[in-house]
Predict the structure.
Amino acid sequence: MFRLKKNKINNMIDYTRLPAHIGVIMDGNGRWAKKRGLPRSAGHSAGADTLKKIVTECNKMGIKYITVYAFSTENWKRPKDEVDYLMNLLMNYLKDSEKTLAGENVIIKAIGLREELSPQLQDQIKKTEEFTKNNTGITMNIALNYGAREELVRAAKQIASEAVENIINIDEINSDMISSHLYTKDQPDPDFIIRTSGEERLSNFLLWQAAYSELWFCDKLWPDFTIKDLHKSIIDFQNRNRRFGGV
Ligand code: IPE
Ligand code: IPE
Ligand code: MG
């Protein structure tokens, strides 16, 4: 019975019109844990398991890029033990990925201000990126110490220094040049952004790249998000009328 239902949803997806790049704001881990009387860390750990399932499915479906918001530049405001737990979880996630996601042909990249992360985590990021760089499946950007405003400030500084050094002319600065100085350079903008947990905001996620993204919100908390929810969201995306300012 369940299988029948699942197939029904699957059949409604048009695999020739998948989003090229999905962004995911994985929110609600803390509330998921609280509801169960567990520490917030248990929610983060359950959230990491959900992430593996969703990335595996996106890859199977043939989606080429996924950017997942794992830790924002503002998340340092949280209690030290939660931040430490998250950093440790991310480290283990990357290590494990060499056995799991890498074997599934996933390319893993980190986007964000990595210089502020511990040297051990920076080394692990480099290792995982190197380990997966020749894969040919989905590219998974893990937004880690990522904030869109920081990304834009960084781009502005790089462009300004190129102008000062006469490498470029101020008149040449255009939106393509700005895009090419972002962490996501060489990647399509996300056409679809999912946020769980009922919050309807971007929280400093891909502000420039999201100019024309379709936004999709659901009340489910991230650890409860399923492959079926992913399929439903994609069907909704395919039913939207994207106009990009035209008619
Ligand atoms: C999202 O879940 C994960 C991170 C921000 C790291 P939260 O930890 O924000 O969970 P809630 O929003 O408090 O429920
Ligand atoms: C956004 O969630 C960041 C991540 C999912 C990593 P937050 O929980 O930090 O966002 P706010 O504080 O509710 O806006
Ligand atoms: Mg939250």
The chain has eight helices and six strands. The two ends are 43 Å apart (CA to CA). The longest helix spans residues 40-61. The chain has a mean pLDDT of 95.
